[in-house]
Write a structure and sequence with these properties.
By secondary structure, the chain is α/β, with parallel strands linked by helices. Helix content is 41%, strand content 17%. The strands form four sheets. Strands 3-2-1-4-5-6-11 form a seven-stranded parallel β-sheet, with helices on both faces. A four-stranded mixed β-sheet has the order 8-15-14-13, covered by helices on one side. Strands 7-10 form a two-stranded parallel sheet. Helix 1 crosses helix 7, helix 4 packs parallel to helix 5 and helix 6 packs parallel to helix 8. The longest helix is centred in the last third of the chain and has 35 residues. The radius of gyration is 22 Å and the shape is globular. The N and C termini lie far apart (56 Å).
């Protein structure tokens, strides 16, 4: 039985990868950070299973990483942990650099310190944000990098230090350059999940309007559940190489928004340009027709904005046999909206029960 160690196991990708590897017969070990808020919602269904284990460590603490690596002695390490929000990296650039750049170095050094450099294969979760202010479209493994945020700059260090250790120490370590990959497990501060939740809440009368940044931004969106298979395939390859993980299909934030609202039972028409653009309801629940349900806010524009990410997965398809078209863009959006429609309905029902209970208590109907 192979043993895998996953950093960032409580995240979207970490939870899907854990499920995937366990399905392959792996003994899976995940790293979590000690925190006053113990957030394990995405992996709660895995805890208690015989081949799923959790360990406390932190990418900001090299000794904790060394201890876990030495204890687990993994065959494969998947470094998925990161401060992964681009906007947050502008607010917390030093923290982002420590985790996303130096944290990668700590993982590599832990493998060397435990004398596993010849037996342990390492996957580094890289990002399409490396291309930033893009110099060619679509982007592949040979496209020049032009990082355009503190997050992207930190991730570029992670990419290059992996390449350096591969060449300097003959380690099997490689990067997957992941383009945007979403799911119903995506964090609620990320734009896709923000959109699907807003569509669900607006359709159910719990929110008035969704505020977004640049609606013209173009992204290559895939389903995270499909992408973890490619991470695994990269480490099963005969030699360590870096791969673009993408669908090869591009859509705008506006398209994502319009489709999400469609699946929530609302049809939008967009009027105006730039900061004055609005999404008007032309078909939907009573009381919404004619109303502005989507608006643009300067608050969601970044100091430097990446607007044209589009991946070319040719190499991954040819060398790994990976199929990026398993879940289409339309199917992905529907999966997310269906999940959030149910989530919002459930939360609304629970809130109504609490309100009724509070009213009954106030009137002395129940004690």
């Amino acid at each position: 039985m192979k043993t895998a160690l996953i950093t960032g196991v409580t995240g979207q990708d970490g939870s899907y990868l854990s499920e995937f590897l366990m399905g392959k017969g792996y003994d899976v070990h995940g790293i979590i950070r000690r925190s006053s808020v113990d957030f394990r919602e995405r992996i709660a269904h895995l805890e208690g299973k015989p081949h799923f284990h959790l360990h406390y460590a932190d990418l900001g603490d090299s000794m904790s990483i060394v201890k876990v690596v030495d204890k687990v002695r993994p065959d494969e390490i998947y470094n998925l942990a990161a401060q992964s929000h681009v906007q947050v990296s502008f607010d917390s650039p030093e923290f982002t650099a420590d985790v996303d750049a130096t944290g990668v170095l700590r993982v590599l050094e832990a493998v060397r310190a435990c004398h596993l450099e010849k037996t342990c294969r390492i996957y580094q979760a890289s990002t399409s944000e490396l291309y930033g202010k893009v110099e060619e479209v679509p982007q592949n493994e040979n496209t020049p990098f032009h990082p355009y945020s503190p997050y992207a700059v930190a991730k570029l260090y992670g990419f290059w230090i992996v390449k350096e250790y591969r060449e300097a120490y003959d380690m099997f370590c490689c990067s997957g350059i992941l383009f945007n990959h979403e799911s119903e497990r995506r964090g609620e501060t990320f734009v896709t999940r923000k959109i699907t939740l807003a569509a669900a809440r607006i359709s159910q009368g719990l929110q008035d309007c969704l505020y977004l940044g640049n609606l013209d931004s173009l992204r290559d969106w895939g389903y995270a559940k499909d992408y973890v298979e490619c991470m695994w395939l990269i480490l099963q390859n005969d030699k360590p190489e870096d791969f673009v993980i993408a669908t090869g299909v591009q859509h705008s934030v506006r398209e994502f928004t319009k489709l999400a609202f469609h699946h929530a039972g609302i049809e939008l028409e967009f009027e105006g340009k730039g900061i004055d653009e609005k999404g008007i309801c032309v078909k939907g629940p009573d009381g919404l027709i004619g109303k502005t349900l989507v608006a643009v806010s300067k608050d969601f524009y970044r100091p430097t904005d990446v607007v044209n990410l589009w991946g070319d997965p040719t190499k991954a398809k040819a060398k790994l046999g990976w199929n990026p078209a398993r879940t289409s863009f339309e199917e992905l959006v529907k999966i997310m909206v269906d999940h959030d429609m149910a989530k919002v309905a459930s939360e609304g029902a629970a809130a109504k029960v609490r309100m009724n209970l509070a009213e009954y208590l106030e009137k002395g109907i129940v004690k």
